[in-house]
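Quick one: tRNA (guanine-N(1)-)-methyltransferase from Polynucleobacter campilacus, structure tokens please.
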Amino acid sequence: MRFDVVTLFPEMFSALTQWGVTGRACQQSLASVHLWNPRDFCTDPRKTVDDRAYGGGPGMVMMAKPLEDTVASIKTAHQAANIKTGPICLLAPQGERFSQKMAADILNLGNLSFICGRYEAVDQRFIDRNIDLQLSIGDFVLSGGEIPAMAMMDAVIRLIPGALGDGESATQDSFMNGLLDYPHYTRPEVYENLSVPDVLLGGHHAKIADWRRQKSLELTFRLRPDLIESARANGLLTREDEQFLRSL
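--- reply ---
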């Protein structure tokens, strides 16, 4: 999986490329992250990438040309590597809410380019001419698109076969089956007078699976009832699931 990231702060992405699961995936060439700084494509001595907004108002606006020249270089690099350029994504508050399903869809694309905005906004003409989709991680505003980009890339990379130590780990994450994950326990068996549920100690795999499914349903019902409705609409709930939910 290849990511091309347009950012004024490429150093930030060392958190993704050098540490943890994502760092190992990059070291093993399961994923690659290519960083592009728009300042490198400016021709003026000050490497100007922003200017005041027409019509007035606070804040600065990222200029179209440095960004567009950066995107053109990304496409040239893809062509040289015999890669078909995937979607170009702007991280923006008005974007569609990112989800686990989107992470899986992005992985299937093979490559994606992120535009990390900064300042007040990005010139709309650049968006109109170059952006294929806009994504957000929530209804709040950050200083730039770098943190959302890293969050999304992390979500995608952990789905790459071989990225996690156990291939089953990703398939059992929250949202993979439309529900929240069930509770997990480890040693010691008793901690501060709290015991591991007996069913997990018995070694009966069918009973453990039933308990985990019910706990997943219970947590989702209590914390994210909207996911229950979505799972129901998508046919992800069995008759036994519905019966258990009625008991709650």
